[in-house]
Amino acid sequence: xxxxxxxxxxxxxxxxxxxxxxxxxxxxxxxxxxxxxxxxxxxxxxxxxxxxxxxxxxxxxxxxxxxxxxxxxxxxxxxxxxxxxxxxxxxxxxxxxxxxxx
Length: 102
Known about the structure:
By secondary structure, the protein is mainly alpha-helical. It contains one helix and no strands. It has one helix spanning about 1-100. The radius of gyration is 43 Å and the shape is rod-shaped.
């Protein structure tokens, strides 16, 4: 009877060890799968972030181009106004000098 009890205890221990081993193996598999999934998720997010950065860069380059064109047009308009005024002032100055001295 005692040997049968010992045998049952040993069988129970062996079964327990087998279940613990299976649980550890399954745990390792779950951890490895989680690591793979995490790595894939990180790569996906990095790809999305990179694509968004490219999109933002293109958008800002377009805005910069539009702003630059607008600023250049404004500068050209102001230059034309200044030229026109300076030509009028030159003509008036020449007339004033002619009237004064001739």
